[in-house]
Amino acid sequence: MPxxxxxxxxxxxxxxxxxxxxxxxxxxxxxxxxxxxSPELFAASLPGREINNLNRRGKYLxxxxxxxxxxxxxxxxxxxxxxxDDTVSEERFLRLSLPFTDGSALHYFDMRRFGRLxxxxxxxxxxxVVLKRIGxxxxxxxxxxDFLELLGKRERSRIKALLLDQGFAAGMGNIxxxxxLYRSGxxxxxxxxxxxxxxxxxxxxxxxxxxAEGIKYGGTTFRDYRNARGALGDFQSRLAVYGRKxxxxxCGASITKAKVAGRGTYYCPRCQK
DNA sequence: AGCACCACCTGTGGGC
DNA sequence: TGCCCACAGGTGGTGC
Length: 273
Hints:
Blueprint: H1 4-18, E1 34-36, H2 39-45, E2 51-57, E3 60-65, E4 69-73, E5 78-83, E6 94-99, E7 105-110, E8 116-120, H3 123-129, H4 144-152, H5 159-164, H6 174-183, H7 197-216, E9 256-260, E10 263-267
Parallel strand pairs: 1-8
Antiparallel strand pairs: 2-3, 3-4, 4-8, 5-7, 6-7, 9-10
Helix pairs in contact: 1-7, 4-7, 6-7
This protein binds a DNA duplex through residues 1-3, 6, 59, 73-77, 93, 110-115, 133, 154, 156-158, 161, 164, 166, 173-176, 220-225, 242, 261-262, 264.
């Protein structure tokens, strides 16, 4: 579900709400949601830790504590909801309750149960255990020349597969990748080695623009995404291609759906070459 | 290196 | 109406 913009929206909302909060006793409705360390150790060691600030790397939400780091990945259908008073109105799909000492709480919901949390003690452990194969954040840690240089090392990849590869750069998912390729006029099946320099530059610009717009409009709610207060995103109404099979592109051609990099892929066969 | 395929889960929507 | 199958915003493992 959530790609970089959705996680960033959640981060921006949660940071002022969570700063200074101290964790109380967690409730692990579904212990396997805790990836690291063991659910028992997680539950025993979280209480008493205080939240300093929130970061993000790609689709990972990184909650820095006074001691250690709590990391969350929402995968397909995870939702992180903040409530002022720890009452659960909806029990369905509730996987974790993380109450704070002041009576507020963070609730983790996840229909498909793919999402995971990690509690690590140091930055080195975070990198080793959680972010081992994660590349630089495509929005914050990659300038245009870095992007072009990294592209040069992956010449034989299909451009769509590469953008989805979190080890190349972190943050792009299926929706925003299709939107970026549309805006830069690039067929998702193209190989990196066949891109002209101007096309690669246009792609980089499109990525920054689309991600910024996604954040500005509160993310994309295609189905399940909710922000940290339970509200829907608004970017779905501005999508040019994703989910719009058979709709007309502004050039007059029909948006086409195909399988590229193993994923449903939407593009305009006339505008994207 | 790159890719196809499967697995992990639950729900939904389209086709028949 | 109802059943079945494909597919869904993500990622990790395997094997070619």
